[in-house]
Amino acid sequence: MIRHIVMFKLVEFADSVEKQAKMQEIKTRLEALKDKIELLHKIEVDFNVNPAEAWDLVLTAEVQSLKDLSDYANHPDHIDVTKNVIAPAKADRACIDYEF
Length: 100
What we know:
By secondary structure, the protein is an alpha+beta fold.
């Protein structure tokens, strides 16, 4: 199994309400991929509660193999969320994939 962990730092927003709404949209859209991409064993998005840290949210997903991870990354529904929801709000991204 492969665990895929991605941290996102978002751009500056006009206020915390707007930022929270965008974070919730990202969470909702990414977690909905579980019902659309069969090879996903698990996907969840959580928000950073520590204001001293730079990252805003984290995605944790589990798939069977690196091939499945590639298929997930290239799935049209994933690409839609990435390009239309995440990319306009993303300032930075860090990722690690490991076997467990």
